[in-house]
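FORM 7B: Structural annotation worksheet

SECTION A. Query
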Amino acid sequence: MIVFDNIVYSLQRSGGISRFWSKITEPYLDSVPFIERADATGNLYRQAQQIANVLPDHKLFKTLSRYVNFRLEAGGAPHIFHSSYYRINRARGAINVTTIHDLIYERFGGLQVGSRLHIAQKRRSLAAADCIVCVSEHTRSDLYEYYPLTRDKRVLVIPNGVDPVPADVPAQAPGSTVRAAAERGAFFLYVGHRGSCKGFDRVYQALKLCDSGIRCIVVGDSLQKHEQEDIAAAGLTDHVLSVGRVSDNDLAFLYSHAAFFFFPSLYEGFGIPPLEAMQFGCPVLASNRSSVPEVVGAAGVLFDPDDAASLEAGLARIQAPELRAGFINAGHERAAALSWQSATVQYRDLYAELLG
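SECTION B. Predicted structure
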């Protein structure tokens, strides 16, 4: 028996953890119970799922419910309890599995109330866990650093992944601002969040080191006022183009038409975007920090985000015409090696072993 806890669908409309959760639970939608709040259906990944057996979550406000654990009895029989976001089951026979995606709150959260609540909940979940899964070796190393109690527990690594490129992805995006932006000339691509640990300001450095004709297309939330001011102050207003959030087809179009994908992040628990870029044949220039080298491997170019000379050398390599085909081929191989199918099989085997 397995029980899955869908709380992350109530906490996010979309996002990396929601995507992960939808992938590893997909094989079980018809066969096991899922704990869920009514507002979970607002999540984009949840909307694509048909779940046969839904158990009601606590009848509390979400701000409280997300921190409240369970005591779901199964007659004392062994059963897996896997929460999408750090809740546990204290019933007899419960085998608690916890997945750790990153330690970003511990590293960068400071003393804010939200960060302290998150850390307290995570510590409680880790203390009760019978098995802990990390998405990368670097995340496992961080886990041991911040939570020494886990050194005496079973901790294993199951990497995230990507899906195979669908055969019906259109060769061109529908008539949209995305296509218009891409047709304005050569560009490199930045995708995702732009918080302080994401190194987005390195985009400005890269543009100043590149040929003056190249631009950066930014996918994600709209540029904030302070970002627009920074871009203007750097004299790069015409070189940074934000297209907001885009569809999967439009993103595939941008990946496959970009000169390269730029990923200057200073910290990642895993880092799926470089893998997505390689999957669509886009050469990757990424930072050499945290888990990024694990994901990129030898298929892309790594640089030190705190060293301008390293960035300049990386830009020269990733844009060298004679190296492009090699980066594309190596990227395809790397993306094929890290798949959601592989992750799902590893979780399936883990559940079977724990129940056995």
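SECTION C. Observations
The longest strand covers residues 94-100. DSSP finds 16 helices and 13 strands in the chain.

SECTION D. Sign-off
Analyst initials: ____
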